[in-house]
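Researcher: Next entry in the queue.
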Amino acid sequence: MELKNIKEDIPKELYSVLEKEITELRPAQEKALKKGLLKNKNLLVCTPTASGKTLIAEMAAMKSILEGKGKAVYIVPLKALAAEKYKDFKKKYGDIAKVALSIGDIDSVDPHLIDCDLIIMTSEKLDSLIRHHTPGLSLVKTVIIDEIHLLNDPGRGPTLEILITILRKLLKNVQLIGLSATIGNPEELAEWLNAKLVVDNWRPIKLYKGVYLKGEIEFE
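Model: Structure for this entry, 220 residues:
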């Protein structure tokens, strides 16, 4: 699918940004669009690394922001990853939206976030903001959970699971977008999220598997 095919479905500011980088959408992105990405549908996207998952999330978030429907929160598992995403999103969307990073003291309220549009944070930070009744959280329309397979992680999993449950109760019309390259039970997770499942195996570079032994590699 070519980008121009969705020109009328996304805000012109978003289209102007995207057309500078791409002309054609990747298979997973096309599937996500067909399953209601731009129509406020919850999605669970399970595709390989570098297959275009982040752009799927960006389209949902920026459409919501630019159309005045609400803020977007992008949840990542690590502070370093949050800082990286903030740098990328600030450079890409800084001229059309207020991008913020919130990974500091988990006991702070961060009242300035009420003035921000796209907020990148860890699940622990968002959990803290909810418990402290941070102003502006009720204005969130889109929540992206990157590396959502960490629901199975003994350390972070319980916090993330409770967080998603709370968000669904607090934000009745929130759009949830889960992203992962590896999920063992995608159908079950999609059902729990009340989400459409997007699965695709396309990757930009073909993956070869082999065994290295004594200086030689034997591929499958």
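Model: Helices lie at 12-18, 27-34, 53-66, 79-93, 123-131, 157-170, 186-193.
Researcher: Noted, moving on.
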